[in-house]
């Protein structure tokens, strides 16, 4: 799309009451690397990613999603997007400026229609990363972020209008209607998705593994350690990616995935998939059946951060 100024997903930032426990989980268990730490702040990188960090943890009294960060190609595109959003009545949290986070760069923040803080930046210094080796069950990169919205149709329309995200596929059922919209900002099937939920919250954050073997090894490591598994292992139809969903110590859902589909954007037409068909939710048939109890786990707690910008 000629007016698409966002190129990719950078990181997801979480506020956590039990900072030490979350830091231990994401490094020792989930496989992220402690790249930078400050007083009550931890910047955690994925081994194979050029991004400075994929997850930021911030010690806080209340659990919340601090922000979701996306990349842009240049400072000019950052300025153009900020100007566009301002003229469209979007509330800016900060004006474009030099970033004070690891890797620097140039960016700004704003609220989406549900009050989530979104950051867009360019010129962030590339991190010294490496090729993840065969058999190494650590995340290569942050794959995608999914959010819950009580007004998902409005939220989908907001991201299409203001950020030029494109719809890849939609999940529905005859009983509850449409429940999830997969959205892209590059040929990857989705970097972002919007789920119908009872309140504003994080649905899940997903991490790309090197391949099927590494994905299964990582899944097995968490199972052996007694981490609560919600759903998986299996393979979705929409996006054709594998999935294993777990809960972090604060009840946020995190996913190991691999082989997410890349689309020919010029010829792609979105599907409307009926998720009551078991082949849609899991092509392999290996995952526990999707039901309302599994779905409720990913509703998460109501986010206290709506229209309240994180302090850092």
UniProtKB/TrEMBL annotation:
SUPFAM superfamilies associated with the record: Glyoxalase/Bleomycin resistance protein/Dihydroxybiphenyl dioxygenase (SSF54593)
Highest taxon in the source lineage: Bacteria
PROSITE patterns for the chain: VOC (PS51819)
Gene3D superfamilies: 2,3-Dihydroxybiphenyl 1,2-Dioxygenase, domain 1 (3.10.180.10)
Pfam families: Glyoxalase
The entry's keywords: Dioxygenase, Lyase, Oxidoreductase
Family annotation (PANTHER family): GLYOXALASE FAMILY PROTEIN, METALLOTHIOL TRANSFERASE FOSB
Name assigned to this protein: Catechol 2,3-dioxygenase-like lactoylglutathione lyase family enzyme
Organism: Mumia flava
Phylogenetic lineage: Bacteria, Bacillati, Actinomycetota, Actinomycetes, Propionibacteriales
């Amino acid at each position: 799309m000629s007016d698409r100024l966002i190129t990719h997903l950078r990181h997801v930032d979480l506020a956590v009451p039990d900072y030490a426990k979350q830091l231990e989980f994401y490094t020792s268990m989930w496989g992220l690397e402690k790249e930078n730490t400050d007083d009550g702040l931890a910047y955690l990188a994925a081994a194979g990613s050029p991004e400075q960090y994929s997850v930021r943890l911030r010690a806080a009294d209340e659990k919340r999603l601090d922000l979701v960060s996306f990349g842009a190609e240049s400072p000019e595109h950052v300025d153009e997007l900020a100007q566009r959003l301002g003229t469209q009545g979007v509330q800016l949290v900060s004006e474009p400026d030099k970033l004070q986070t690891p890797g620097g760069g140039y960016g700004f923040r704003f609220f989406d229609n549900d009050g989530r803080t979104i950051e867009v930046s360019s010129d962030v210094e590339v991190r010294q990363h490496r090729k993840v080796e065969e058999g190494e069950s650590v995340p290569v990169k942050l794959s995608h972020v999914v959010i819950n919205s009580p007004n998902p149709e409005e939220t989908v329309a907001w991201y299409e209008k203001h950020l030029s995200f494109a719809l890849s596929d939609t999940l529905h059922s005859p009983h509850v209607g449409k429940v999830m919209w997969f959205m892209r900002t590059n040929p990857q099937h989705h970097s972002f998705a919007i789920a119908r939920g009872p309140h504003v919250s994080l649905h899940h954050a997903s991490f790309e593994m090197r391949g099927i073997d590494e994905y299964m090894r990582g899944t097995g490591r968490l199972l052996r350690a007694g981490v609560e598994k919600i759903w998986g292992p299996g393979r979705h139809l929409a996006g054709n990616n594998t999935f294993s969903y777990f809960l972090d110590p604060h009840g946020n859902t995190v996913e190991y995935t691999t082989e997410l589909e890349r689309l020919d954007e010029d010829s792609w037409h979105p599907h409307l998939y009926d998720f009551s068909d078991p082949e849609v939710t899991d092509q392999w048939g290996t995952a526990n059946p999707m039901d309302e109890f599994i779905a409720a786990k990913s509703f998460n707690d109501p986010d206290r951060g709506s229209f309240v910008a994180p302090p850092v």
